[in-house]
Specification:
Helix content: under 10%
Order of helices and strands: EEEEHEEEEEEEEEEEEEEEEEEE
Oligomer: single chain
Structural class: mainly beta
Number of helices: 1
Number of strands: 23
Radius of gyration: 18 Å
């Protein structure tokens, strides 16, 4: 299938696969063996839920070193996606439906929080051909152990999607709503700290299915990927400043390695040296 989202935890990589809604585990130290479900291949299928995560949007490697969480929108004609959890120690998976998260919505973005919690941002978008039933997207905080929602809210009236979320070094959550509003959220006080419309000069955010908009830098910096360039957030004022204009459109993100920010433009892998 199509690898829509990925994350690394320890010595393994994890991929969210469309259209099967599968979670794959790859050990790069061993030979590649073409994937066949139910067999010991590499990568191998470790969990699946085509109904709940038909089109994966995020794979989160939780900092506990053992938990993998995959989000996604549901299968064709359906409304309300779920979450797939994989426990590396127990080698067991758990699937939560939208009825246990936010009804008739799917988790589009996700970020780890301290003390065994994570924050999710939903989308009202149904599976392809499905019916949109919810009127506004929400933010929520879930307890990882109990799998229970501890808090949820429509943070911005009328917003249909929380496009990306990232835990900043100061413990605040940086986010993008509807791919056009930058905001800062306090996950402890459950309050909105800052919001601003993204300048038109930046262009749109990256637009692929797993939006890797936020790129943490090596010295606690935070960068964002937009079509026209790489933007940096000033920690205290939250001011957005163009760090580098790109000579090619930035269409998909994104990661940092050894002094460079990497991104995709069309069929090309590109980088910017900090």
């Amino acid at each position: 299938g199509q690898f829509d989202a990925l994350a690394r935890q320890g010595d393994r990589f994890y991929f969210g696969v469309y259209p099967s809604g599968s979670l794959l585990e790859w050990d790069p130290s061993k030979p590649w063996v073409d994937t066949k479900e139910g067999e010991e291949t590499n990568p191998k299928v470790i969990a699946a839920s085509s109904l709940m995560t038909h089109r994966p949007h995020r794979v989160l490697a939780y900092p506990d070193g053992k938990t993998i969480i995959m989000t996604g929108t549901p299968e064709y004609g359906s409304t309300g996606g779920g979450l797939v959890f994989w426990n590396r120690e127990k080698k067991a998976s758990t699937v939560l439906k939208d009825t246990a998260i936010i009804l008739d919505q799917s988790t589009f973005s996700i970020a780890a929080l301290p003390k065994g919690k994570f924050i999710g941002g939903t989308t009202t978008q149904p599976g392809t051909g499905g019916i949109r039933k919810a009127k506004e997207a929400e933010l929520y905080i879930m307890n990882l152990k109990s799998r229970k929602i501890e808090w949820h809210k429509v943070l911005f009236p009328g917003v249909q999607e929380y496009s990306d979320l990232c835990l900043a070094p100061d413990g605040l959550i940086y986010g993008i709503a509807d791919r056009k509003t930058f905001f800062v959220f306090d996950p402890v006080k459950h309050t909105l700290v800052h919001q601003q419309e993204i300048p038109a000069s930046f262009g749109s955010t990256v637009v692929k299915e797993s939006l890797r908009i936020f790129i943490p830098g090596p010295n606690k910096e935070m960068f964002l990927l937009f079509k026209n360039g790489i933007v940096q957030v000033e920690p205290s004022s939250f001011k957005l400043t163009m760090k580098a204009e790109s000579p090619v459109p930035i269409l998909a993100g994104g990661d940092y390695l050894d002094g460079r920010i990497y991104f995709v433009s069309g069929s090309h892998l590109c980088s910017y040296k900090l």
